[in-house]
Structure formats: C-alpha cells, structure tokens
From TrEMBL:
InterPro entries: Ribosomal_cL38
Organism in which the protein naturally occurs: Castilleja foliolosa
Feature: compositional bias, Basic residues: 50-65
UniProt xrefs under PANTHER family: 50S RIBOSOMAL PROTEIN 6, CHLOROPLASTIC, LARGE RIBOSOMAL SUBUNIT PROTEIN CL38
Protein name per UniProt: 50S ribosomal protein 6, chloroplastic
Residue span of region Disordered: 1-27, 50-74
Amino acid sequence: MSVSAIFGSRLVAPPPSSAATKAAPPPQRLAVGRYGGGSCGLVIECSSRPQKKATKHHMKTRPRKSCPSDIRHGPAVYPPLPSLPPEWSFVSEAAAAAEAPPQPVQHE
C-alpha cells in the first residue's frame, strides 16, 4: 500500500543521505483528506486486495470433513414427530368455502 493511498496526497521527503549534512527544508504540507487538503477524513483511492464479503468468506473458510469417519458420517436420524392433538385440525378449501361468511352486526 502506498503512502499516497493512505494520506491522499504526496508527502515531501528530505533528499537521500548524501545531502544529510545540509539542513533539509521542513515539509511544506502534510494534508489528510482530499487532494486540495479538505476537511474530510482519509481518502482511499484503490484497494489492491479487497476483502471478501460475509457469505463468500464463510463459504471459503467453513470447516471441511477431512477424517474418514467424518466423511462416512451421515445426517442425524430423529424419531418422527407425534401427531397433532384433536383440537388442532387442518381446514380444507372445500370446507372453508362451504361455511357461510360471518354476518355483519346490525344496530337498531
């Protein structure tokens, strides 16, 4: 990652060590923000290694079956659910159509 990607502008650096004996001028500007040195936060120009989104990451890093015993292991077998009690019943479409709709209440 480059420094310009973090700070959004170029940094002024002193010349190489051959001129280290001379007094280096102080940096003119260290701006964090937009190109004009605005008041915004950090500007990220481009990401060379974007992160995976949540589902893609979980699919890539999920635990795999590697042991032979795990590979041969099948899904759990549960006993069947008990039947519904008599007060619970399913209504068929024919029975629902045969019933008359409720009458509106008339005030006298």
